[in-house]
Amino acid sequence: MDFSWFNEFSPELLQGAWVTLQLLLISAAVGFSLALLVALARLSHCLPLALLARFYVSVLRGTPLLVQIFIFYYGVGMLLAGWPWMRSSWLWPYLREGFFYVAVALSLSVSAYVGEVLRAGLRAVPKGELEAARAYGMSPFMVLRRVWLVRALQLLRPTLAGEAVMLLKSTALASTVALMDLLGAANLVRAQTLKVYEPLLLVAVVYIVLAFVIEQLIARWGYKPQTRPRMD
């Protein structure tokens, strides 16, 4: 194993790691927010809204993520590039980069998968707890925010950790549209040094470390140690 190239290419690898982290954080934040809306729509008593949410989930879960990225990057990207007013707008510096389209595709994919997970978690919360919260005088929004969603997230913590790790691994698809993420930086090193295994091995270790950190953060999220009352 020869890692003599590391010092020379460490700036590219660090920049790639930063791009990967940005994709992860943005997609997780946007995707989870949309997932909550999807879950509530799936549980809605409004049949058209529930059917629309079900169709949305079926489409996104039934198509490969790589295909979705290509549709946004090559399809929507080329469509927007053909509009002169868009190219002259302040949005164009963002819309011409692959980062935007990958983030959109990842966010929508997360919203579909996590939306179904949240739907199951919300349904698993005992109705008695919700009725008690309403009897206490809480508004529907307060019941959702302070009781229903909190209890569902507690039940879903292991599953959400798995979804977050899957999202981390999915960010590697960004390299397929020439975005210099962590895997893209590793491919650059491979191309310029002709080292086949070492760059990929290093990147694999970084992904493993990031996955471990994600799992630990979610496992400790909301944890409160139990303390025994003092006996005077």
List the topology elements.
Elements: H1 6-42, H2 47-62, H3 65-81, H4 84-87, H5 92-95, H6 98-124, H7 127-135, H8 140-155, H9 157-170, H10 182-193, H11 198-220
Give me some keywords for this one.
single chain, 232 residues, mainly alpha, MetI-like fold, 11 helices, globular, disordered C terminus
DSSP strand content:
under 5%
What is the level-2 CATH architecture name? Orthogonal Bundle
Largest sheet: none
CATH topology: MetI-like fold
List how many beta strands DSSP finds: 0
Count of separate DSSP helical elements = 11
Helix content: over 70%
Mass-distribution shape: globular
> Could you give me the name of the CATH homologous superfamily?
MetI-like
Distance between the termini: 64 Å
Structural class of the secondary elements? mainly alpha
Averaged pLDDT: 89
